[in-house]
Specification:
Layout (H helix, E strand, L loop, with lengths): L4 H15 L1 H9 L2 H14 L5 H18 L2 H12 L8 H14 L8 H11 L6 H16 L1 H4 L5 H13 L2 H16 L4 H4 L3 H10 L5 H17 L1 H9 L3 H10 L2 H17 L1 H9 L2 H11 L2 H14 L5 H12 L7 H12 L3 H5 L4 H12 L5 H17 L4 H4 L2 H10 L5 H14 L20 H7 L4 H14 L3 H9 L2 H11 L2 H17 L2 H4 L3 H14 L8 H15 L12 H5 L4 H10 L2 H11 L7 H10 L1 H13 L3 H17 L1 H11 L2 H14 L2 E2 L32 E2 H15 L1 H9 L2 H14 L8 H14 L3 H4 L2 H13 L5 H17 L2 H9 L2 H6 L10 H9 L6 H9 L3 H4 L2 H13 L9 H13 L3 H9 L2 H10 L4 H15 L8 H16 L2 H14 L3 H4 L2 H4 L2 H7 L5 H15 L16 H9 L5 H14 L3 H5 L1 H5 L1 H8 L4 H14 L3 H8 L4 H7 L5 H15 L3 H10 L1 H8 ...
Antiparallel strand pairs: 1-2
Helix pairs in contact: 1-2, 1-4, 3-4, 3-6, 4-5, 5-6, 5-7, 6-8, 7-8, 8-10, 10-11, 10-14, 13-14, 14-15, 14-17, 16-17, 16-19, 17-18, 17-20, 19-20, 20-22, 21-22, 21-24, 22-24, 22-25, 24-25, 25-28, 27-28, 28-30, 29-30, 30-32, 30-33, 32-33, 33-36, 35-36, 36-39, 38-39, 38-41, 39-42, 40-42, ...
């Protein structure tokens, strides 16, 4: 095959393998891969050149790629094949084919180049076969030189240089470099470590002196890479003596070597002044100047960069050399020369720059002349350098701002090349910048129309160019003529654009330019329309973000914003410009930054602007101020130290915003700042001065949006105080209120600062002449609010001024404005809560109560903002109630004239008032407090119509709690018996019964208690309406609470007291009251409640139906338990109920089973006659016809107990005792006993009592008969006949036949005794006995005749004289 046919064959194989899988397989099977590998390296082996060899390599490589599946797969295949122990082709050929593949690889997708790198590094080792090593280096060079592959590798450029050095190095150096490259590739280290640090630097420096240019280029290129990346390498190069050879390379090296050497030296100069001095002393400046003249563009650029670092003095020689280069023919590009010359000129003295003839002045004027060059690049660089020079050297601008300098710059403003015009504008801007010595009209020689190109440039599409033009205009516009021309050319649109889109520097200049315009013209002429004005305000504020607070730029921008903020609505503006800030809360942050970080003048302007937003953005302001805690301290500082009242008031308003939303953080920030105490003193002084700032436009909203809606508004509209005037005293009061409410120590500080005295004077001034024009009306109620807060501290209350302020507060309570009255009441509330009794008495005597009463009844929905404000300052919700309750806790107030004057006012409030729906409940509570414990006050209330009013109020079905309160008040009133005579008392019964039926539990409880008092009146108790209370009261017996049970029990007891017939009503009610009572008696309730239940039992057991109820017998045991208790009332009620139960014989039988005799006998003693009588009655019922029980009673000592009581017992009790004795002596065994004998004498003594009832007389006589009919008893009788017979004679004449019978019978027993017959007193009995003998009652007649017979033995004549014989005969015959 001829050589020429080889590329064609490779082409054919490429074509076949690209289209047919079978073809690929056939090539592989025919051992075509080694052949194709050989074809790739054949041109280099056979020294083939030209297109034929390139075509062969290309076709063979692409055929291999088709077989392997792409170039990436081919590269990996060749890499792996090169390491295979069974090679398909010579290893050198495989690596050569890999090198070629790596060189021509062009895929964009990611490829793991490190895998191939690792293979090549393994292959790169000392070998016997030099060819293999060369092919490995060739492959690595292709890898690092391929732009597609090298980007996936670390340090690819450095590795590429390493390969170049290895290729050209001697054997020993080559081995060192191979180790370094391997380390760089495999050990994960940097170039500095891989090359061996200083040792490697010394090696590279040594290579700089070799004659081979290529070798020099590689060495200096690696040094350039090292100095770019590793600072230590710079000192290592210097220490290794590398600077002289590098400088020498600048003059004698190849172009690439010179450029890299310049770059290395520039890196060295930038790193250290010492190294820079070394470069300079090594002849660096002349060498760089030579390179600047003779080097290529890259070399000139590197030289210029290095010279700007190297040259530190503006010596004439250097300037002249540069001028020679600038004005000479070579180099053709003067840009880098201009740059270096500009750098040198910046270091020249002011004298050299402005003095004609000096080298520096020549250089500067040469740059100005270059502006007229036809080369645009040269013009651009000259303009840029001049701009830099004038910007950095302000000291020369005044002297050089001449026609000769300015006009060339002005001329270039019309250049078609924008960048040239821009640089010229920058130069002009620098020349015209104001200085301290000459700040205005610097460019007065600029003719009309000269600034138009500058304005045109400011409007160009390039924002950079526009910024540059605006920077110049910002300086030129100080001239009023230039400003007028610029305004006419619509320069404002350019300024606003830069404000919106420019850099921070551009925004500063635009702000300055706008400031200059606003100095000359009204805001409406400069900014036309709301949109432009709004944009300008927001953009100016935004520009503050990048400004240094200590520079004039920030102050200028703030001055513009402040000027706009002062602007009011006009023809051009339908709303104030500053309102834009309120619409964009984020715009406030830069202003807050100025406040936090700026110097005092900047802070003052920030305060002036921000304070106007207090009304619209209080929350946002508060958040931002607290976020920058330094701003809190700044505000305090300016409030204390600023000479401007506007600033002090505005700062106070801002602090209110911060403290209102974040009280804790704001107060902590003030505390940390150390200004808190001094601030309080300053605020007190502001409050004292109470000066108005008529220029202010600050709207201070009270906390929690008080001004959003108030009780004073009509419909949906309300008035906001005119923000054009804010009183310093008002905002000071607000802030003092907030500060004082935070901590007790702050209240004391306000007091120490004279705050209480100042408030006293303020209120006294107002209240002494309330009709006069008073400018600070809002400050009045805020003053009262502050007092309320201060008086929360007892130490402040002790202030001497406190007593003096009470009359003013009392007068303020009479104000027409409810807000004044409300906070005056709050101050009073704080005083009564923390003051002494004497202070409370002073308040009561001040007449404040009548003013307080005018506040009663306004519900929270009527004044929600006042209530919310009170809560914010931890004040009470209802100051009126608090004051009245505390005052009327004092007995002196409650019973004094204040209470008497107050009662009618409160009674008037009981009647419905449409606009004060909350008044009646409060009035009820206060009246309750006044009435309790004072019968006089109760009468005054009744005279004032309280009973009628309360009854009518109840009829309106008020809330449950109010019903309960009214009922309780009625209870207290009815506890005075004199009030029960009022007709209104009876009429209230109906409403109380209605409450009892339909009210809540609490209301029913109070109503039941009121009825208990009301039932003291018999006429009410016996009325038909009273009967309607029975059922609901019985229903209450099923309640769970003891209080309800007790109330219903006592009411029922009172209702039925003294009227057993009416108790029958209880038998007809729904439910079983006895069951309820039994439940109480058998429960664990209190003894008092059980006692009341027993009393109701007493009432119930008066009815046969209840006594017959099976539950009645269940009550016996609980009643006995009561009788065993230690409480006298419980014992008495238990005994009474038990005694009443024994009216039922069946219950007596059941009760007899209980061992109760001893208990009852034991209770028959003491001074409780009602208890004793009940016990005796029970014993009587138990002993009747039950001899064993009688014996038990005697045994228990009942006779002795009764005999002890007889001398002092009332008549009724004596009657009961006589009846008990009768029952006992019915037993013959008892009648014969010695105990019975003791009864005789006391009974005779009782019979002598004139108040002794007939029932008692009967019982006593029967008992005596029972005893004295026994002879042994007569024998022991110690009374004289006269003592016995005399009382008996009176009974013979008793209207009761039974008593006559018993008296006669007893007398007959006595007259059986001889000494009784013989006693002279016996004669007195003859006549009554004769009369009884004449009565037709047989038993009585017989007994009388028997007695006459006994008397006639001793006194026959007396009997005969009285007609006794006749009556005896009559009796005899009748028998």
């Amino acid at each position: 095959m001829t050589f020429l046919s080889v590329p064609a064959a490779a082409d054919a194989l490429e074509a076949l393998s690209s289209k047919s899988t079978r073809a690929k397989k056939a090539v592989v099977d025919a051992d075509g891969v080694p052949v194709l590998i050989g074809a790739v390296v054949a041109p280099s082996k056979e020294c083939m050149q030209g297109e034929c060899g390139q075509a062969l390599q290309g076709h063979a490589t692409r055929a291999l790629a088709n077989i392997c599946g792409g170039m990436s797969a081919l590269i990996l295949y060749l890499g792996e094949l090169s390491q295979s122990p069974r090679l398909a082709a010579p290893v050198a050929d495989i690596i050569g084919a890999l090198a070629y593949s790596l060189m021509v690889f062009e895929q964009e997708e990611p490829f793991d180049a490190t895998q191939i790198e690792d293979i090549l590094v393994i292959l790169l080792k000392p070998r016997d076969n030099k060819l293999v090593q060369e092919r490995v280096l060739e492959a690595m060079a292709s890898l690092y030189g391929n732009n597609y592959l090298s980007r996936w590798l670390n340090h690819a450029e450095a590795k590429k240089v390493f390969i170049g050095l290895i290729t050209m190095a001697t054997a020993d150096v080559q081995e060192y470099l191979i180790i370094s490259l391997t380390s760089l590739c495999c050990d994960g280290v940097g170039i500095w470590e891989a090359i061996g640090k200083r040792e490697g630097i010394q090696l590279l420096i040594s290579l700089l002196g070799l004659s081979s240019e290529q070798h020099q280029e590689y060495a200096v290129q690696l040094l350039a890479i090292l100095t770019d990346q590793v600072d230590d390498s710079k000192w290592a190069i210097t220490a290794a003596g590398g600077i002289p050879p590098l400088v020498q390379l600048l003059e004698m090296g190849s172009q690439n070597a010179r450029e890299d050497a310049a770059h290395v030296l520039w890196n060295l100069c930038c790193h250290s002044e010492d190294i820079r001095a070394c470069v300079e002393s090594a002849g660096g400046v002349p060498a760089f100047l030579w390179l600047l003249k003779s080097g290529g563009p890259k070399g000139q650029g590197a030289s210029a960069k290095a010279l700007t670092k190297l040259v530190r003095t503006a010596d004439s020689a250097t300037i002249n050399q540069l001028l020679a280069l600038l004005l000479g023919d070579s180099p053709s590009s003067k840009a880098h020369i201009i740059r270096v010359l500009g750098h040198v000129l910046t270091m020249a003295s002011q004298k050299d720059l402005v003095q004609k003839g000096a080298a520096a002045n020549k250089g500067l004027r040469s740059l100005v002349q270059v502006l007229n060059s036809s080369n645009e690049e040269t013009q651009e660089y000259a303009a840029s350098v001049l701009a830099d020079l004038f910007s950095t050297r302000q000291d020369i601008c005044d002297s050089l701002a001449t026609d000769e300098i300015v006009h060339p710059c002005m001329k270039l403003l019309t250049s078609n090349t924008q960048v040239i015009a821009t640089q010229s504008a920058r130069a002009l801007g620098a020349l015209s910048r104001p200085t301290k010595t000459k700040s205005t009209n610097k460019m007065s020689y600029i003719a009309e129309g000269d600034v138009k190109p500058l304005i045109k440039l400011a409007k160009t599409s390039s924002i950079d160019a526009a910024e540059t033009a605006v920077a110049a205009l910002a300086n030129l516009l100080s001239d009023p003529h230039i400003a007028a021309e610029a305004l006419a050319e619509d320069v404002v649109s350019a300024l606003t654009r830069v404000l919106g889109e420019g850099t921070s520097e551009g925004k500063k200049n635009a702000s300055r330019a706008l400031h200059q315009l606003l100095k000359h013209f009204p805001v409406g002429d400069v900014l036309t329309g709301n949109a432009q004005c709004r944009f300008a305000v927001l953009a100016l504020v935004d520009s503050l973000n990048a400004m240094d607070m200590d520079e004039t730029d920030a102050a200028d921008a703030l001055e513009v914003i402040a000027l706009l903020a002062r602007t009011k609505q006009s023809v051009n503006f339908t709303y104030p410009p500053w309102s834009a800030l309120a619409e964009v809360p984020s715009s406030l942050e830069p202003l807050v930054r100025c406040l936090a970080e700026g110097p005092p003048p900047v802070q003052d302007m920030a305060i002036e602007i921000l304070s106007r937003l207090c009304g619209d953005q209080p929350v946002a302001l508060g958040d931002l101020l607290v976020a920058r805690s330094r701003s809190i301290g700044s505000l305090a500082n300016r409030i204390m130290n600023s000479t401007s009242l506007e600033v002090r008031v505005g700062g106070t308003a801002l602090l209110i915003c911060a403290a209102k939303e974040h009280k804790q953080q704001a107060m902590e920030a003030l505390d940390v700042s150390g200004y808190l105490k001094a601030l309080i003193y300053a605020l007190v002084e502001m409050m004292k001065q109470n000066s108005s700032c008529c220029s202010l436009e600050i709207e201070v909203r009270t906390p929690r949006g008080y001004m959003e809606r108030t009780v004073f508004q009509e419909g949906d509209e309300f008035e906001v105080p005119d923000p054009a005037t804010v009183l310093g005293g008002t905002v000071a009061l607000w802030l003092l209120s907030i500060i004082s409410s935070f901590h007790a120590k702050n209240k004391l500080t306000v007091m120490e600062a004279g705050g209480v005295e100042a408030l006293t004077e303020k209120l006294a001034c107002y209240t002494s002449n309330p009709q006069a024009e008073f400018e600070d009306t809002e400050g009045i109620w805020i003053s009262a609010l502050l007092l309320a807060i201060l008086f929360q501290d007892a130490n402040v209350v002790l202030s001497p001024a406190t007593m003096r302020i009470i009359p003013s507060l009392a007068l303020l309570l009479r104000s027409d404005e409810i807000i004044d009255r409300y906070f005056a009441a709050q101050a009073m509330a704080s005083l009564v809560c923390n003051g002494s009794k004497g202070m409370k008495l002073s308040i009561a005597n001040s007449g404040a109560v009548s003013g307080i009463i005018t506040l009663i009844g306004y519900i929270e929905s009527d004044m929600p903002n006042l209530v919310a404000l009170s809560e914010e300052f931890s004040l009470v919700r209802n100051p009126d109630q608090v004051v009245l309750e505390h005052l009327f806790e004092i007995e002196d107030v409650r019973v004094g004239s204040t209470a008497r004057k107050t009662i009618p006012l409160l009674v008037d409030l009981l009647r419905p008032i449409p606009d004060r729906p909350g008044a009646p409940p409060t009035a009820v509570r206060i009246l309750t407090r006044i009435a309790d414990g004072s019968d006089t006050n109760k009468l005054i209330m009744a005279e004032a119509g309280a009973l009628d009013a309360l009854t009518k109020y109840l009829s309106l079905s008020p809330q449950d709690s109010t019903e309960a309160s009214i009922s309780e008040l009625l209870r207290i009133l009815f506890s005075n018996p004199d009030l029960l005579r009022y007709e209104a008392s009876a009429s209230s019964l109906n409403q109380l019964v209605a409450v009892l039926r339909l009210g809540s539990r609490n209301a029913r409880l109070s109503a039941a208690r009121a009825l208990h008092e009301l039932f003291d009146a018999e006429n009410i108790r016996d009325s038909d309406l009273a009967r309607q209370a029975v059922q609901p009261l019985v229903d209450m017996l099923n309640a769970a609470s003891e209080s309800e049970l007790e109330a219903s029990l006592v009411a029922l007891i009172k209702l039925f007291s003294g009227n057993s017939l009416k108790a029958a009503l209880l038998a007809d009610v729904e439910g079983d009251p006895l069951e309820s009572v039994y439940r109480i008696l058998s429960s664990t309730s209190s003894l008092e409640l059980k006692s009341n239940a027993a009393q109701l039992c007493f009432v119930l057991f008066g009815n046969t139906k209840f006594r017959a109820n099976p539950i009645a017998s269940e009550c016996i045991q609980p009643l006995i338990s009561l009788m065993l208790s230690d409480a006298n009332a419980a014992v008495e009620s238990g005994v009474c109920a038990f005694e009443r139960l024994l009216d039922d014989e069946q219950q007596v039988e059941l009760a007899a089973a209980y061992d109760i005799v001893d208990l009852l006998v034991g209770l028959v003693s003491g001074s409780n006659h009602q208890l004793t009588e009940a016990c005796i009655s029970a014993l009587i019922k138990l002993g009747k016809d039950r001899t064993p029980h009688k014996l038990d009673m005697v045994k228990a000592g009942i006779i002795d107990n009764c005999l002890e009581l007889l001398p002092v017992a009332p008549s009724s009790l004596c009657s009961s005792i006589a009846e008990l004795f009768r029952i006992l002596t019915n037993s013959s065994a008892i009648a014969k006993s010695s105990a019975a004998a003791k009864i005789v004498e006391p009974l005779f003594m009782v019979l002598l009592r004139p108040d002794f009832s007939m029932w008692g007389q009967h019982s006593a006589l029967q008992a005596l008969v029972n005893i004295l009919e026994k002879p042994q008893s007569l024998a022991t009788l110690k009374l004289t006949p006269s003592q016995v017979i005399e009382p008996l004679i009176s009974f013979l004449e008793s209207p009761s036949q039974a008593i006559q019978q018993l008296g006669t019978e007893l007398l007959s027993h006595l007259l059986a005794q001889e000494h009784f017959q013989q006693d002279i007193t016996t004669k007195n009995a003859v006549v009554p006995l004769v009369q009884l003998a004449g009565i037709g009652i047989l038993n009585l007649q017989q007994t009388a005749i028997k007695s006459l017979e006994n008397i006639s033995i001793s006194w026959p004549k007396a009997v005969a004289d009285a007609g006794g014989i006749f009556e005896a005969c009559e009796g005899y015959y009748s028998r």
